[in-house]
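Hi everyone,

Forwarding the result from last night's run.
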Amino acid sequence: MSLLTLVPGRMGGSESYVRALLEQFGRGNGPERVTVLANPQVAAAYAGDLRGPVSLHRVRGYRPGRRAPARAAAMIAGLALPGRVAREVPSGLDLLHFPVTVPIPQTSLPRVVTLHDIQHHDLPQFFSRSERALRRLTYDAAARQASAVITPSEYSARRITDVLGIPPERVEAIHNGIDHERFRPGPAAGDADMLAPLGLPRPFVLYPANLWPHKNHGRLIEAFARVSEPDLELVLIGQTYGRLQGLRERAREVGAAARLRHLGYVERGAVPALYRAARAVVFPSLYEGFGGPPLEAMACGCPVAASNRAALAEVCGGACVALDPESVESILAAIDRVVRDESLRPQLEEAGLKRARGFSWEATAKRHAEVYRRAVVRSAGSG
């Protein structure tokens, strides 16, 4: 499993997926042996968490950097000069899996690529020309050249097939899972200690999402400014990527600044406690290849209002209040229903818990292992 292009703590759901797979592989729910190819940052962050059949191999010749320009330069160099990194790949491997898509190192081994979505094709307005070009060079090419492509939803599988022209038999839709040991209904011991340093208001609605343009924070804030309950506040968590000041200015323009709290990046252990404390989770994203946070909230017994776009309807399965993310009126109505309708709330909690129980990282990991086996057999047959 190549994690050379991963930057710990800055890749949101992609890193959650990686960590969950490694945890399950460590428990024996995967291949007999897994070698993690790690850049220096990953080696420092992950070394103490790997166990069982999972081992770590440091690759010192690839340093991704933490900022986007440095990461892009490292990717281009890694693809243009493949030998420099490939020299550090240990012998005896059967296959390489690229869970964060970019195929570095380049070797002759069979490869499985995880392509989480093709947002750069579906919402190109949110990417610069250079970003779109880089994703075509890395994401699109990686998927087309892979022995198998894994993607987390049927929605994304259809889009990959239709847009990239990859045969359906080479694209595997495998839903992400839920860590039910972490995400479970409350009250839970330790929640108060986790939440105390955050100084949270009560009651509050939570939106767990990095400040990417497709996360649609602007319309959410505009809708929240019109929420009639004066004591209800909006809490945001996630990386800001330099966009927080603009978001605060927008909140001031629409009169929501006094009821807006952005906590930034929150430690993993505090996230379930936030779900259990929230009055509701609202998730008005314009685009998701999967969309894990609504399911995590459901697993914690928190009512959810979520967008009906891309993979979210598939993932939520009717266990939430659906909203049109391009309509401020729809977002406002969804918040009002999920917060104030006391007959609806217990129905959402029950439906959400039932829906979340159908998503297991153990099952996800075992299906990945099946894809690996088929890819090795397919490669041997074609050779």
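The chain has a mean pLDDT of 94.

Cheers,
N.
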